[in-house]
Amino acid sequence: MLTHFDIDLPEPLQFENLTAIIPDEDLQRLIWQLRRQTGYDFRDYKVSTLRRQIIRRMGLQQVETLPAYLTLLEHQAGEAQQLVKGLLINVTSFFRDPEAFEVLKTSALLPLLKTMSIDDVFRVWVPGCASGEEAVSIAIVIHECLRELNIQDMQVRIFATDLNRELIQRARSGIYPATISEQLSMSRLKDHFLKIEEGYQVRPHLTRMLVWAEHNLIEHPPFSSLHLISCRNVLIYFQARLQTKIRAFFQFALRAGGILFLGSSEAMPEALDIFTIIDSKHKIYQRTPGAAYQWISLDQPLFTKAPSTSEEPMTAPGKSQRSSDDHELRIIHEMLLDHYHSTCAIVDERYRVRYTYGDIDHYLRLIPGRDGQHSILSMAREGLDVELTIALYEAFESDRVVIRQGVSVKSAGGERLINVIVKPIRDEALSGRFQLIVFEFSPAGRNLESAPPESREGEEGVTVTRLREELQQARQALQNATHALQAKSEELTSSLEEISSANEEIQTTNEELRTSKEELESMNEELNTLNTQLTNQNHALTQANNTLYNFLQSSANGVIFLDQRLAIREYTEAVTRIFSLRKSDVGRPLSEIVSKFKSDTLTTVAANVLDTLVNIEREDQTVSGQWYKIEIRPYRTTNNIVDGLVLTFSEVTAQKQARDQAELAYQYVRKVVDTIENSLLELDQEFRVIAANPAFFRQFQVQPEDTVGRLLFELGNGQWDIPDLRHLLSDILPQQSTVHDYVVQHDFPRIGQRTMRLNARQIEEIDRILLIITDVTDLDSHQT
Hints:
This protein is an alpha+beta fold and 784 residues long. The longest helix has 62 residues, at 453-514.
């Protein structure tokens, strides 16, 4: 059911937010409102598709909330139909997925046709055919199969149906644009299509197979005794309940061994035993002989919206269609020329004259007015009306030839005797019943008025007696015929009333169907676009999964994924060095898995992380002496939903040993520094005191809490803001990196005038300055 309809999509929708925008309760309200306004029931339609189209219409109408859109839908004429137009789908092409059609031909149709007789009728149903490309494709494949098996004379009936009347009319014309040459091979295009001005037209050998009809797959009863059903990419638009119902229709419609051909995104549930798989990849199934039928329930009455059952063939373009009346008259005319040379007339069931032949004026009076509107009884000349009435009644009643001999007819040429022969016309090409009336001149029927007087007087008595007997018989027959005609007239009146009522219902149905003109197209095109995007996304997802798998498996770090029950969901190969894991352990609780750690508190810590959602990092040692860094963090989905834990194990044995050695070295250096009698300061690049040794605190009589973390020049109320010291640190040291024996004198409030020899070094690797202060005051005094 697909046709082309270009649509410019807005920015990609965030599908996870559609439910929040249109809650289920509001969606049901809209579905019921659509059903009330348009008659279309979308309760079993895919919910995601409904939401996308509703949001699309809301955007086009610049409506921000669903209640506001419901109000708009109620009061704005045509909006409901526009929404329905977006929800219904029509997209198709010739031989979509050519490989699938080739498998259908070789694995299904050829084996099935080999089991059939040339006298059988091969019956096919293509529901949702749209503009007919798929149905014509099926016809081409069947024709090729018949040709290969040399049974081209087998009769084939392909019932191609769709809900859209306009699309059916387009398909019935058999005309397709020139662009179909891109979809068909040159051999198929040459064998099955004629090149015309508008493009290409399907050849007659295919049109004879195809029967186009309006049909609602959901509401109307299915066809039966079918050998093949091709229903591709229709079920994907329905929810599971409706799909089950349609599958039951297909099971009912197919005879044992019949073939079901579905689309690439559709499939039969594996639990069903009513179909066996011929090709799972291309979704080709065969009806299992003897399988029990599923119960089929028709929710809607069958006669309120019944489809057209007329089997209308394709018609050639540019040729006017003859009316049924002209067609009938042509057949009757040929019949008269072939078989009769007498004066005759042809009437229908209502005794209306449809055709006359020969010198009819002797028997019928011509009445002014439109041809074919007058009863032959009102046109019959004197003496013929009674006999003609009786003969016609008997002929229509018995459906056999009726002969009335010696009928006296008066006309302008005098009175004559004739034989009236009424013969039924039987021809399948004629619609309705017709009678051929032959007016045959009787051998004894010379003109009575022109006979000699002597002979006329001798025959007069005999004629009177005969006429009286015939008159009595005619009166009796006429009375019987009158009663019968009255009964028939009453039956005909009742039938006409019923037909009129049925015609009104059919007209109502046609008007309802006409409103859905091209509304299926936009949704199908959008779905095709979304399917393409989904295919690309699936391809990207597969690549991402492969990349992630290789990354995890090649990583030296072990990873375990737990669910909310702290059971194993997945793990990497590296983690098997710590835990005794096998593939069969997936689904088991972590507490049941044996690990090599000395501590057995891992499960408890993991449970705490799942409760608090706070990441934890810890280190643990195995019984063999290896150290591992363990990171436990919540497992979050793309919707930020916590759905378990992720445990990462990184071996840090070397780093642990290096840290321990560094710590020992640091402690050693610290002890050396603490034993030095000279004062030592560690400064950062801003001259902030990072550390000082005990000799500094003793010599300058300050406390650690008043020193560490403060700027050097602010210590002791600025007593260390010595210009020479500042010059050393700010100007000299950045240029030389190392300064030796730099002498500074300063008067400290507590310890008095002191002379200090400074040695400084800038350690660029860690952005530190090391300052060693040696008090040489006593040495200078002694020298002095």
